[in-house]
Specification:
single chain, mainly alpha, 70% helix
Length: 86
């Protein structure tokens, strides 16, 4: 697996991130995809990054109960009261 080692690797991380996020202009994207055909490690890292992003996008959302904030505020207030008594 590719290990980002130095400051010289940071431009690569920006391109990789922008590529995975779909933020590159067409010419930049094409050039990056061409570069990926020449470097198996970076190509593998890019594929894993895209797969990870897709997995995160497909993760289900957890919804808090409607009264969650109210209950949380009450618990915090009770804890503060307890701390003042001690």
């Amino acid at each position: 697996m590719y290990d980002i080692k130095s400051d010289t690797d940071y431009p690569l991380t920006f391109f990789l991130n922008d590529y995975v996020e779909g933020l590159l202009e067409n010419t930049e994207r094409s050039a990056f995809e061409e570069y990926l055909t020449t470097d198996n490690e970076i190509s593998s890292l890019t594929h894993k990054s895209k797969s990870g992003k897709q997995a995160l996008n497909n993760a289900y959302q957890v919804k808090a109960a409607d009264d969650f904030e109210e209950k949380l505020a009450r618990c915090i207030a009770e804890e503060k009261d307890q701390m003042q008594l001690n």
